[in-house]
Design a protein that fits this description.
The complex is a heterodimer of chains A (150) and B (574). Chain A has helices spanning 21-34, 41-54, 111-125, 129-135, 139-149, and strands at 12-13, 58-60, 63-64, 67-69, 77-87, 97-105. Chain A is of the alpha/beta class and 150 residues long. Chain A has one domain (3-149): Mannitol-specific EII, Chain A, CATH 3.40.930.10. In chain A, strands 1, 2, 3, 4, 5 and 6 form a 6-stranded mixed β-sheet that branches. The N and C termini of chain A lie close together (10 Å). By secondary structure, chain B is of the alpha+beta class. Helices cover 58% and strands 9% of the residues of chain B. Chain B has helices at 4-28, 32-43, 56-76, 80-113, 117-126, 132-141, 148-160, 162-176, 183-212, 222-241, 245-257, 264-289, 292-297, 299-321, 329-337, 343-355, 360-388, 475-482, 506-513, 525-532; strands at 401-404, 413-419, 440-447, 450-452, 465-471, 497-500, 543-546, 549-556, 562-569. In chain B, strand 7 (543-546) and strand 8 (549-556) form a beta hairpin. In chain B, helix 4 (80-113) packs across helix 7. The longest helix of chain B is centred in the N-terminal third of the chain and has 34 residues, at 80-113. Classes of the chains: A alpha/beta (150), B alpha+beta (574).
């Protein structure tokens, strides 16, 4: 599975405008709502916040991977955003977050949900990827980068 | 015909020299195949060796067999994931790309060499394809790492473009001989080559996997031979049916390489060695076959044709096709430049000779010149170009040596030998502090020539070989522990690890990630970890494995309370 195949210009945002976690989740869920990938905005947000309550998905070094499952989501969907100024995401290392990958899946989904998280992990671990992602000025540049690094 | 013992002696010497030249290759920055070619020329009748070899039919036979072995090994080493990601652009380059390259080069040859139109196109067709042996040799042993997609595109293209070049060459010859007149016949020929090639390769590939895993041979040494036999069979059957044997053998390799088979590592090692032997043999033979004096006689025309091919024809073809697939400018420049030529054109150049085409000797000499030019110039400059364009990516850390537990059965476990470098995370730590996942144990430690039985307090030192028995799915995690820290980008987390509160309930985690933890749903993660780790095992950095995830104790209080937990998703292959 390729992350690139789950994305298009409507689900990638460069740069993100939000400054904190809640705003950021809303901003990225809205990308998915506007592109018609999910229908129940409130439910998606609630599920994401519930997962954040178990502990933050700001995993450190400027990266956050919020993810959740909910019945209202039909297919596995992904949104990606880059923030130049950084987002207060309550990260484990207290650093601001610059690269956010948001993942939503149906409750019954098991394998592909985890696999996609692993794929995302592989992607952000490519040496130099993070730095290059921050240099992207438009969503199409970011898509090209993901395409070439995957 | 010289005596057999003399032939064997000379072949042995040439192999030895070939291997010796591979040692020099890295220092000179020259691809090994160029050295093999030069070695062949030196050994030839115009060089110091004085070996006379001008048997085109034998050369064609050896060249074909070598190509079968090289392509099959290439298929074995290509992951299905990367193949799926690039096959569309690669296939377009392998068909329309070759057509465009052949026509542009052919027209140039008509003008430069004063050939009739069809003979010019014939020459263009012969040099139209990118050579798999050359590309694989430089990609895998050339000392550079490229972005995955770029590398796969080139490899798949070169592995699948020979049918088009062969088709164009045979097509031209058929028309010249008056055997084929209609465009329909020609298109039918191409269609048969591609479809039968694909069907033959995939069918026999799957059949081979089925047979290999059920045959239960008594000697493990027979498995690599069995696999190789399927490669030859694939080529033979497909070719006989009228499909492209080269395409088929690559696809069969791809299928077999992406399935779990008995004695897998032995099979891979054997084919790696076979591919090396094939490369050395083929390129030395091509060098022997060449006549530097005749190449010199056509050097001006050859150079002109080569320049058109390298700098005009392929770049035109690539810049039409590649932009459709979101390749950026730098990648297009690189793809344009890396259309290395190799043995296929030389093999194809013997076709007109065998057909008795009037201009055949001229075509052969020009083709040979162009191939040498391409191999030397493009092969030599490719790593530098990749660096100049900023396309090089850091090489992956060398994989640990893996020994198979049982050669004759498929076991989901491995014995792995990790060499501990000074910069390894494990260096200087005690065995019990390594945080090995459940499902991995250290069997023994080899220090110099001594075997040290591992205990919890044994300290691992740089230079040690640590031999582990592990479940296959824990290997990525274990490799992290032993990896050289310098190779892991310091800017990034060592493994994606999600923090979790120790008070999170087992049931919630099971629901969120669809994993089964075999514990009551109302337990906390802290309780769960305590129930799994006894006494001394509960320490900061301890790791407990639950199917696709592992829980990592990140912090313990002075009283032994778990303060922080991390969840790691193991990097499983699909």
């Amino acid at each position: 599975m390729r992350i690139r195949d789950l994305l298009d210009e409507a689900t990638v945002k460069v740069p993100l405008e939000s400054v904190d976690k809640e705003e950021c989740l809303e901003e990225m869920v809205d990308l998915l709502v506007r592109s018609g990938r999910i229908s129940d905005r409130q439910a998606a947000l609630k599920a994401l916040l519930k997962r954040e309550a178990q502990a933050t998905t700001g995993i450190g070094k400027g990266i956050a991977l919020p993810h959740a499952k909910h019945d209202s989501i039909s297919d596995l969907v992904v949104a990606i955003g880059v923030s130049k100024d950084g987002i207060e995401f309550d990260s484990v290392d207290d650093e601001l977050v610059h690269f956010v990958v948001l993942l939503l899946a149906n409750t019954s989904e098991t394998g592909s949900h985890l696999r996609t998280l692993v794929e995302v992990a592989r992607l952000v671990e490519v040496p130099g990827f993070f730095r290059k992602a921050l240099d992207c000025k438009t969503s199409s540049e970011l898509l090209d980068l993901i395409d070439s690094e995957e | 015909m010289p005596r057999v013992d003399v032939i064997i002696l000379i072949a042995g010497l040439l192999l030895l020299l070939g291997i010796a030249s591979s040692k020099v290759s890295a220092r000179l920055g020259l691809p090994v195949l160029v050295l093999f070619l030069l070695l062949g020329m030196l050994a030839g009748d115009e060089g110091i060796g004085g070996i006379v070899f001008d048997n085109y039919e034998l050369a064609y036979g050896i060249g074909t067999l070598a190509l079968v072995v090289i392509l099959f090994d290439g298929g074995l080493g290509t992951s299905a994931t990367s193949f799926r990601a690039v096959w569309v652009p690669s296939l377009l380059m392998a068909t329309f790309g070759v057509l465009i390259t052949a026509i542009v080069t052919g027209l140039a040859a008509v003008w430069i060499l004063g050939l009739p139109l069809l003979i010019g196109i014939l020459l263009g067709s012969i040099v139209g394809s990118t050579d798999a042996a050359a590309v694989f040799s430089i990609m895998r042993h050339g000392g550079i790492s490229l972005p995955k997609r770029l590398e796969s595109t080139l490899e798949v293209e070169s592995a699948s473009n020979d049918p088009m070049a062969i088709f164009l060459t045979i097509g031209c010859l058929e028309v010249l001989a008056g055997r084929v007149t209609g465009v329909q016949d020609l298109l039918g020929l191409l269609f048969a080559q591609l479809t039968l090639g694909a069907i033959g390769g995939l069918t026999i590939g799957y059949w081979a996997v089925w047979v290999i895993n059920r045959i239960h041979l008594n000697s493990s040494g027979l498995y690599p031979i069995l696999v190789q036999a399927f490669a030859w069979l694939t080529f033979g059957i497909t070719h006989w049916l009228g499909g492209s044997g080269f395409l088929a053998v690559y696809l069969a390799g791809l299928v077999i390489g992406n399935h779990s088979i008995v004695f897998q590592r032995g099979v891979r090692l054997f084919h790696d060695a076979a591919a090396w032997l094939a490369q050395i043999m083929m390129f030395i033979m091509l060098g022997l076959l060449s006549f530097p004096s005749r190449m010199f006689a056509v050097s001006v025309q050859g150079l002109l044709v080569g320049v058109v091919l390298l700098l005009v024809a392929r770049p035109i073809a690539i810049s039409i096709i590649a932009p459709l697939f979101r390749f950026n400018r730098k990648e297009i420049i690189f793809l344009s430049w890396v259309g290395l030529k190799g043995a296929v054109p030389i093999t194809l150049a013997t076709f007109p000779l065998l057909e008795g085409v009037e201009q055949a000797p001229l075509i052969f000499d020009v083709v040979f010149f162009v191939v040498v030019l391409s191999a030397v110039v493009q092969g030599w400059t490719m790593p530098y170009l990749a660096r100049y364009l900023g396309l090089e990516v850091p090489a992956e850390p060398p994989p640990p040596v893996t020994l198979e537990i049982m050669s004759l059965q498929n076991v989901d476990g491995e014995v792995v030998d990790y060499a501990v470098g000074a910069e390894s995370r494990a260096a200087g730590r005690r065995v019990k502090d390594l945080a090995l996942p459940a499902g991995a144990v250290i069997a023994l430690i080899v220090r110099d020539k001594n075997v040290i039985p591992p205990h919890g307090n044994t300290r691992i030192e740089p230079g040690d070989h640590v031999i582990l028995v592990l479940r296959s799915d824990t290997m990525p995690l274990v490799s992290r522990i032993f990896a050289d820290q310098r190779l892991v980008d310091e800017d990034l987390p060592p493994l994606i690890e999600f923090p979790l509160r120790p008070s999170v309930k087992v049931g919630d985690l099971e629901e969120a990630y669809g994993v089964r933890m075999d514990a009551p749903g109302d337990w906390t993660l802290s309780q769960l970890i305590r129930s799994r780790l006894e006494g001394d095992e509960l320490r900061a950095d301890a790791m407990v494995h639950f199917g696709p995830i592992a829980l990592h104790v990140r912090g313990l209080s002075a009283h032994g309370t778990i303060e922080q937990i991390g969840m790691v998703i193991l990097m499983q292959e699909e």
